[in-house]
Each structure stands twice: as C-alpha cells, then as structure tokens.
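User: Please fill in residues for this 379-position structure.
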C-alpha cells in the first residue's frame, strides 16, 4: 500500500509536468551566469537588470534597452524618448522606514519602482510601504512586482493597495520578450548578444524550477481539505530520506550503467584507504577477484586506481591526476581520472540530485579498466 502511494505521487507529478509542457532549458555553450548560480540570487539578478537598463551602462547601447523595456511594460507613449538618456536607474533604493526597493527608474517626474521576488517571501506591508514612500497618498500610480511567473503579491505585503496600484510582470513573459526584442535590435557582432542569450537561458532555468515546485505542490494538494492525503505523506517521507535516498539512487545508477567489460565487476567499497573512504561508493574487481580501483564521488564522478600501466598513462595523457596517500611515508599517490557518460576525463557532477541521470546513458570504461588491470598485474 505504501509503495502504491509513492507510485501515485510520481505519476501525478509527471502528468502535471507534461500537461504544462515543461522541460529544462538546455544548451551546449558555457554560460558564466549559470556557473555563478545567479538564478538563485535575487541581488545578482537585480544588478544585471539594472546594468542593462542604465543608459550610461558599460553595454554601450545607451537608452535603447530602457526604451524597449518601457515599451514592453506599456510606458513608451507616456515618456518622451529624448528624456531617456538622462534617466536614473538605481538599485536597493532606500525608503523612509529603512527598506530597500530592488530597482528604481526615475525619468524626469516619472517614478517606476520595481520589486523583484524570485525565491524570497513577501514581508509584512512591504509593497504598501514602498508605494507610500514614492507616491504618498496619491493612488493614481503603480508599483511593479516582478516574479518568475507573474504571480500576485500576498495580501499582507500589499496592505491597503488595490489591484490598480500593483502591476504584476514576469521574467517568463515580460523580461524574456524584452531581451528578445533587444537582441534583435543589436548588431550580430556585438558581445551583448551573447550576454543577453546567457541571461535568457538563466531565466528559462529559473522559471522551469518555479514551475516544477508548483507542480509538486499541486500533486500533494496541500490545502485544508486534503492535508491527510497519501501523496503528501509519500512526499514527506521522500524529503525525510533526503541525502541517503539520493546516494542510493546514484549507486543503483552506477551499478546499472557503468560498463567494465567481461570478467570485471562492481562491488561494495572494500580496502579503501581510510583517508579517502568518505567519498568511495564502489570497488572494481578483476577476474582474479582482486580490487584494482575504486569509484569515488566528491563533486564529480571519478575512478581511483591502485596502479596504472604505462599504456593507460599514454592513452589518457593529460587526464590523470595524483591523489596523495597520507598514510604512505614515501608520499606515493593513487592516480585518478574523471569519467562519465560523455567520456573519459569529462566532468559528471553527482554530489547533488541531478536530472542528468534521466538520460540513462551507459558509461563505457572497458578499455580504461583493462589498461588499469595491466598495471596491477605488472605492479
């Protein structure tokens, strides 16, 4: 019965994701913004937005980004284009009660406050305070509320503000459309084209994660009428398992997908140098039942060999590293090498849960294992 609850939960989540036509954004290019993880850091996202919007920014595009942004949010007919070059774009603008608005645009007598919410929660009376700081009791203005999907702010944050005082905009629709239009208006050779493309990929990742969370919450139906449902119980048990569950899933993946060649097998960790056994997940045995290597995971997946033949060093030249053996008085080293579905020497991060396992690619290291075994035989 408990197993059925898990199966039902997974089916429900999968159905919801398919119905929303959700899929991860992928790219073969290196994206520095993803490396820095800015999709998880609101302050960095705001800095990037501000830098692009600023007419005096280092992008060299002058007021073009600001003009197209104002057009996207419906302001292009109200503000004279000649005034844009003198616009002020500020970040974390302080209010009377020591709060800070994420992005502020001032153009002459016009004020456009933008509050960005990606992963953080609304604070009590936050938008209400921002609005009254800039517009006092004049309820003929709007404050902008920017989120991944354009959701509305909480009642506690909006206070006495009505729907007409808050304009909800989204990264998924408004910011993406703005960046697309801006890219189309920049010469192809301009380096800003690549920067904008990287930013769009970060936004796609951010929005896909937001959708995934929403679908999971939808699957568990977390509301007053169904807090006792089986899906919620199953999800809580999964979350409680956390790290241990992921470690078992990836171990089963390695058992299933790593191909060693005839006569070799993966076994549970044994005879691991004690200084390094915290990262060891499996041992590799040869036809003589001798351990010739270990499978380790720190950040990436890698193989540590007892010894390596000259042919193995030559075959994979430049890809081997030495792992110091702290217990050896002669300071010998265990050679190690990264590997994964994309080949020998390639990084494959498995320290945290990753959808990369869904591809179910086999990991072929038959030749590497054979050459390592030759080194052991000759040792």
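Assistant: Residues filled in for all 379 positions:
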């Amino acid at each position: 019965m408990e197993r059925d609850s898990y199966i039902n939960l997974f089916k429900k989540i999968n159905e919801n994701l398919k119905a929303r036509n959700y899929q991860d954004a992928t790219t073969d290019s290196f994206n520095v913004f993803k490396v820095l993880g800015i999709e998880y850091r609101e302050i960095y996202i705001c800095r990037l937005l501000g830098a692009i919007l600023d007419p005096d920014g280092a992008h060299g595009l002058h007021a073009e980004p600001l003009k197209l942004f104002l057009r996207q949010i419906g302001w292009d007919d109200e503000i004279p284009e000649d005034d844009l070059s003198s616009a002020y774009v500020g970040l974390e603008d302080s209010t009377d009660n020591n709060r800070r608005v994420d992005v502020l645009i001032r153009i002459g007598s016009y004020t456009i406050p933008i509050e960005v919410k990606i992963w953080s929660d609304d604070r009590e009376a936050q938008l209400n305070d921002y609005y009254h700081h800039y517009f006092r009791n004049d309820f003929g203005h709007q404050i902008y509320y920017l989120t991944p999907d354009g959701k509305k702010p909480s009642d506690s944050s909006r206070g006495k503000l009505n729907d007409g005082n808050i304009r909800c905009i989204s990264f998924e629709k408004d910011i993406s459309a703005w960046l697309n239009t801006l890219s189309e208006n920049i010469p192809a050779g301009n380096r800003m084209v690549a920067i904008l493309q990287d930013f769009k990929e970060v936004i796609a990742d951010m929005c896909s994660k937001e959708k995934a969370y929403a679908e999971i919450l939808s699957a568990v139906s977390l509301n007053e009428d169904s807090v006792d449902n089986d899906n919620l119980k199953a999800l809580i048990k999964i979350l409680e398992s956390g790290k241990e569950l992921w470690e078992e899933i990836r171990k089963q993946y390695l058992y299933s997908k790593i191909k060693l060649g005839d006569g070799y097998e993966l076994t549970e960790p044994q005879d691991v140098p004690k200084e390094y056994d915290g990262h060891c997940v499996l041992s590799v045995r040869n036809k003589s039942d001798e351990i010739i290597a270990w499978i380790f995971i720190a950040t990436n997946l890698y193989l540590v060999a007892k010894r390596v033949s000259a042919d193995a060093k030559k075959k994979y030249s430049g890809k081997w590293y030495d792992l110091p053996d702290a217990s050896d008085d002669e300071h010998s080293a265990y050679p190690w090498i990264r590997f994964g579905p994309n080949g020998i020497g390639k990084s494959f991060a498995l320290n945290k849960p990753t959808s990369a396992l869904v591809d179910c690619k086999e990991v072929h290291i038959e030749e590497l294992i054979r050459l390592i075994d030759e080194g052991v035989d000759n040792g």
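For context: The first helix runs from residue 2 to 19.
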